[in-house]
Design goal:
three-stranded parallel β-sheet, binds nicotinamide-adenine-dinucleotide, alpha/beta
Length: 281
């Protein structure tokens, strides 16, 4: 049977390390503060925001919460971001996405000062990642690198195939694997003979957004399989982009859903907040 890559355990370990770091920073007079903005009351967003605030409280990060009504205008939201950009006590600004349709997501992302862009979505952060300069990295792919490293999985020289080319997962994942000296292929909805390409992978990252699409026909024997997808199956249970029961017997390591990639995203967000405060010093 494969090694199960335990994201719950690894994220808990990262949070403990951050808690210690924040306590040390506090002793040196440095505090860490994240501003979290939610527009409207989408239930899934409320759960994500709640989890982020809980993680902040655990680690010792102050969180400022802005719950704005659905009717908030783009101008009002950008004005709030502008104020938070100026505040010296705020290290990170996060606007929970998606925002209501009358607000431009792009305008919101661009409004956040790059030095407070703890989600790593600002074009400057993405550009910095692309050319190997310092900047915040999108939390989910950054978490996947931690999962691999902390599980002792070598990336350098490996064939890495990513299924999906989204701005928040697929593309930054490709850049991060490249930075770790992997040989990277990005596949997408127009890729021909997808199975043939994915079967080359030593490390396969599925971020395709289709429940249990990836069966063992897509996987080389002994590959490491990282499942980014989050879905509810017909019994309302969580499942991923990978058909876990089918793939697990043929791979060497795999992330489960839940308890794999999911918990890493918040841990890396917390890491970015702490880094932002440390860098400002
Ligand atoms: P997305 O919908 O933005 O992107 C999906 C990508 O898959 C696209 O680039 C598309 O080209 C590709 N694709 C679609 N159908 C395909 C096919 N048949 N063959 C090959 N490629 C195909 O999704 P996303 O935002 O990148 O998220 C992907 C999944 O990861 C979703 O299930 C999402 O819920 C999940 N997710 C999880 C976390 C986490 O914290 N674990 C974070 C972000 C996203």
């Amino acid at each position: 049977m494969p090694k199960i890559i335990n994201g719950k355990e690894i994220s808990a370990q990262i949070k403990e390390e951050l808690k210690e770091k924040v306590a040390e920073m506090k002793k040196a007079g440095i505090s860490v503060c994240l501003a979290v903005i939610q527009v409207g009351d989408d239930p899934a967003s409320s759960v994500y925001v709640g989890n982020k605030k809980k993680a902040c409280a655990y680690i010792g990060i102050t969180s400022l919460s802005y719950e704005l009504p659905e009717e908030t205008t783009q101008e009002e939201l950008l004005a709030l971001i502008g104020e938070l950009n100026k505040r010296k006590d705020v290290n990170g600004i996060l606007v929970q996405l998606p925002v209501p349709e009358h607000i431009s997501e792009d305008a919101v992302i661009r409004a956040i000062a790059p030095e407070k862009d703890v989600d790593g979505f600002h074009p400057q952060s993405v550009g910095a990642l692309c050319i190997g300069q310092q900047g915040f990295v999108s939390c989910t792919p950054a978490g996947i690198i931690q999962l691999l490293k902390r599980s002792g999985i070598e990336i350098a020289g490996k064939e890495c195939v990513i299924i999906g080319r989204s701005n928040i997962v697929g593309k930054p994942m490709a850049l991060l694997l490249l930075r770790e000296n992997g040989t990277v292929t990005v596949t997408h909805s127009r890729t021909k003979d997808l199975k043939e390409v994915t079967k080359r992978a030593d490390i396969l990252v599925a971020a395709v957004g289709k429940p249990r699409m990836i069966t063992r026909e897509y996987v080389k024997e002994g590959a490491v399989v990282i499942d980014v997808g989050i879905h509810r199956n017909e019994n309302n249970k969580l499942c991923g982009d990978v058909d876990y029961d089918d793939v697990a017997p043929v791979c060497s390591a795999i992330t489960p859903v839940p308890g794999g990639v999911g918990p890493m995203t918040i841990a890396m967000l917390m890491n970015n907040c702490v880094e932002s405060a440390a860098l400002r010093q």
